[in-house]
Design goal:
Blueprint lengths: L3 E8 L3 E2 L9 H15 L10 E5 L11 H8 L8 E4 L5 H14 L5 E9 L5 E3 L12 E3 L9 H7 L4 H11 L4 H20 L10 E3 L7 E3 L10 H5 L20 E11 H7 L5 E10 L9 H12 L8 E4 L4 H10 L15 H4 L3 H19 L3 E8 L3 E9 L1
Parallel strand pairs: 3-4, 3-5, 12-13
Antiparallel strand pairs: 1-10, 1-11, 2-10, 5-10, 6-7, 8-9, 11-14, 13-14
Helix pairs in contact: 1-2, 3-12, 5-10
Length: 400
Amino acid sequence: MKDVYICDAIRTPIGRHGGALATVRPDDLAAAVLRGILDRNPSLPHDRISDVILGCANQAGEDNRNVARMAVLLAGLPDSVPGMTVNRLCGSGMDAVGRAAQAIRAGEADVVLAGGVESMSRAPFVIGKAAEAFSRNVQMYDTHPGWRFVNPSLETLYGTDSMMQTAQNLATDFDISREDQDAFAFRSQEKAAAAQTDGRLADEIIPITIPQSRGNALCVDRDEHPRATSMEKLATLRSLSGPAGSITAGNSSGINDGAAALLLASEDAVRSYGLTPRVVVRGMAVAGVPPRIMGIGPVPATKSLLARLGMALGQMDVIELNEAFAAQALACLRVLDIPDDDARVNPRGGAIAFGHPLGMSGARLIVTATSQLVHTGGRNALCTMCIGVGQGIAMVIERV
């Protein structure tokens, strides 16, 4: 089995819902990061790219009909380069990178571009088809959050708790206080602000230029979602999970836009095309959990992966845990026996600060972890996240 190297890893800034990137189509966002990878690696022959694999969770609007293939063509790659879109909801971007690594490890590909994209601002409304001839009853759904077109049998078997309710379920089941959730969220914002200020985040980001109807083009080069806050301010926010709940906008991730891409290659391709390996992909694992506590998914995925690799959490220098909700992140950390404020966890901040563009987020974790390992000289990083409808995904990378 061949080693798999990540030779480059970039992302767009993450835009707020309805913010700076809202006017950019998801296929154009994805094309932008693909072009960015190609521009940064001019020695790579474009026709030697075996595949392009992108994660995308919605696929109900402009990201329909295989957004990866559309991005390949929009990025100016030869039409001989294929593209595939994968959907594991929140874990789509990480799954795309994992699938790329699997293909290279098995000898079925040499160079793959992988990542993810999501424009939650541009997620459309959809209307269900009538169940009877001449029916005047229609159902309309907003496609960016949660459940739609629910199967009654699935609802009977497992329920259809909203994402916020699944977080509240964890807060209740694991006795996670509102104060602890707000403290975790505050640390995320503080770390993100520090990483913006000292330039660490700039290492991950390629600017996005957006033409304007009047005047100069808009250059978006900073994450839009992080915000200055305080424990006092967070404490004033109302619960989104019922009067007795503890889930708020301040201790939850956002609804956002963005794209990320990584260049994966075999050792032969690294030598042949003069690429610079940064990290090696050690492995990936997925796991299922009850949908009502979907946020606990990183725990079994992480345990399964580390057992297979013969590794332990103590060997991880960086832990990129997607912060869907503070309650969810804290539940996972506590079950894994990791302190709430462990310095290895999301050292540049997490999704509570940056936001959570669903199909992008898993790839973003790997981009950030790669940059962090190179920046600090650390050896191993764990990237892990929960997934709607009850799954978890995890990946370990090692600095070369």
